[in-house]
Amino acid sequence: MAYVSFRRADGTASYGRLVEGRILDCGAAPGAPADLKAALAAGPLAALAHGGGVGLDEVTLLPVIPNPAKILCVGHNYESHRQETGRAKVDHPSIFTRFPDTLVAAGQPIVLPSVSSNLDFEGELAVVIGQGGRHIAEADALDHIAGYACFNDASLRDWQWHTTQFTPGKNFPGTGAFGPALVTPDEAGDLADVHVVTTLNGEVVQDQPIRDMIFPIAKIVAYVSAFTPLSPGDVIATGTPGGVGAKRQPTLWMKAGDRVEVAIGPIGTLTNMIETERQPG
C-alpha cells in the first residue's frame, strides 16, 4: 500500500491511501487521526478507515510526513560516495540532522538560495518509522519501519564546507525533497537489488543498488535508536550513492529551471524543479 499527505482544494490538509491514481481520504473519516504521523502512532495504517476518493490532480501533495519530529540523515553510506569524497572508513554511521521546515513535496520546487550557487543533488531512500522505540535490536529493526519514500538531500556545498559541521549546508528552506508517497514494506518487497537513480534534466547522474549501502537499514535504525528514542513519523535518509555534482570535473550544480528526479523502483519517482529564492518585497 502507498499513502500520501496532501492539501485539498479548500486549503485543508489531509492524508490517504493511494489507489490507481486516486486517494482514499483517510483524514475525512470520522474520528480520524489528525495527520499521517498521528495515524502511524495510532496503529497499523491498514486499519485506517477512509472517506470519499479524490483525484491526484485535484490536490497538492505535501511532504510524506509534513511534520516529523526528527529527520536523521546518514552521510557517506555508499562506498562510491565515500571514495569520491576522500573520507576515511568508519566503524559507525555518520549521522547529521535536517530540520522539518526544509522539506518540500514532490512537484514543489527545490529552492536555490540567494547566498549560494553550489546546489547539489543527493538521491536517497528514506525510511519512515512506524513503531517507535529505544535501543532497538538490529534483528527487530525492520519491524519498526512503516514504509519507505524517495528523498533528495539537496545540499549547499559551500555552506556545508564552511567548517567540518554539515548543518548549514543541509538546512536551507526548501531543499529537502520528500515524496511522493510512503510505500509500505509489504508492497516495497526486497529492496536489495533496487537501484537509487537520480537524473538531472534527463541525464542519469547517480545509479546504485541499495545493497551497496555500507551500513544497511537495520543497522542504521538500531544505531540511531541507541542514542535517541525514535517515534512514529520520524524519518531517516539513508545516504546517497556516488556521482554527486561536487565531485565531478567540472562540477555540476543544479540551477534554476533544472528538473531533478529520484527514482527508486517500487518506491516511486520524486520529481522537482529548481527555483531561485524569491526575495521579499
Q: Please identify the oligomeric state.
A: single chain
Number of helices: 5
Approximate shape = globular
The pLDDT mean sits at: 95
Order of helices and strands: EEEHEEEHEEEEEEEHEHEEHEEE
Measured on Cα atoms, how large is the radius of gyration? 18 Å
Query: Share of helix among residues?
Result: 10-25%
Task: Supply the number of structural domains.
Answer: 2
Q: What's the number of extended β-strand segments?
A: 19
**What would you give as the CATH superfamily of the largest domain?**
Fumarylacetoacetase-like, C-terminal domain
Percent in strands: 25-35%
Report the end-to-end length measured between terminal Cα atoms: 44 Å
CATH hierarchy, class of the largest domain: Alpha Beta
Q: Tell me about the biggest sheet?
A: 12 strands, mixed
Second-tier CATH architecture of the largest domain: Alpha-Beta Complex
What is the fold named in CATH at topology level of the largest domain?
Fumarylacetoacetate hydrolase, domain 2
Point out poorly predicted stretches.
none
User: What class do helices, strands and sheet pairing give?
Assistant: mainly beta
Question: Can you offer a commentary on this structure?
Answer:
This protein is mainly β and 281 residues long. The chain folds into two domains: 2-61, no CATH class; 71-276, Fumarylacetoacetase-like, C-terminal domain (Fumarylacetoacetate hydrolase, domain 2). The protein is built from five helices and 19 strands. The chain has helices at residues 36-42, 79-85, 157-160, 185-188, 217-227, and strands spanning 2-7, 13-19, 22-25, 53-55, 60-61, 71-75, 94-98, 103-104, 110-112, 119-120, 123-129, 145-153, 155-156, 176-183, 195-200, 203-209, 235-237, 259-263, 269-276. The strands form three sheets. Strands 1, 2, 3, 4, 5, 6, 7, 8, 11, 12, 14 and 17 form a twelve-stranded mixed beta sheet that branches. A five-stranded mixed beta sheet has the order 9-19-18-15-16, with no helix packed on it. A hairpin with a 5-residue loop joins strand 1 and strand 2 (13-19). The longest helix has 11 residues, at 217-227. The model has no long low-confidence stretch (mean pLDDT 95).
